[in-house]
Amino acid sequence: MPKQPKSAISPTRQEDYPEWYQQVIKASDLAEASDVRGCMVIKPWGYALWENIQRALDRMFKDTGHENAYFPLFIPMSYLEKAAEHVEGFAKECAVVTHHRLEPGADGGLVPAGPLEEPLIVRPTSETIIGATYARWVQSYRDLPILLNQWANVVRWEMRTRMFLRTTEFLWQEGHTVHATQEEAVEETLRMLDVYADFAESYMAMPVIKGEKTAGERFPGAINTYSIEAMMQDRKGLQSGTSHFLGQNFARAQEIKFQDQNGQEVYAWTTSWGVSTRLIGGLIMTHGDDDGLILPPRLAPAHAVILPIYRNDQERGEVLEYCNRLKQQIEAEQFHAEPVRVKLDDRDMRGGEKSWRHIKRGVPLRLEIGPRDVGSDSVFLGRRDQPVKQKSGVPREQFVATVAEVLDEIQNNLFDRALQLRESNTCRIDAPAEFEAYFTPKNEEKPEIHGGFALCHFNDTPEMDEKLKKLKVTVRCVPLGGQDEPGRCIFTGRPSHRRGVFAKAY
RNA sequence: CGGGGCGUGGCGCAGUCUGGCUAGCGCACCUGCUUUGGGAGCAGGGGGUCGGAGGUUCGAAUCCUCUCGCCCCGACCA
Question: What is the ipTM score, two decimals?
Answer without folding.
Answer: 0.80
